[in-house]
Design goal:
It contains six helices and no strands. With about 140 residues, the chain is mainly alpha-helical. The chain is elongated.
Amino acid sequence: MTASPAPVLTIGKLSAATGVKVPTIRFYEQAGLLPEPPRTASDRRLYDEPARRRLAFIRHARQLGFDLDAIRSLLDLADHPDRTCSEANQIAERHLAEVTEKIRQLQALQGELSRMTINCAGGRVSACKVIEVLQDADCPHH
């Protein structure tokens, strides 16, 4: 019994299967994250299952906030399964540190916005704390 041929997806079907928009798929190809697919005589891209899995990997990594360079490194590691995963762990740890810092900054922003809105008397703009704080850009209100 012969193996059945791998399913072939057009870019539209690949987009539907992964939830990644067509222009984004093209961008990932140009960025070197997805290999250039074979094309039909009429120049239509054709993707196989490994390409679908790779795009799903990229999409998930982007959802987790990894930048393209980190994703490129993680894909390289995934392409070499015999390598140690310490490099992947280091990439994830760096990203975790970045996320932790962003959360700290967002919490500070939340506090500042809360103070601005709580102190708003609801009267005229001339006495509005929100406007006052925004006009006084040199004064950090932490």
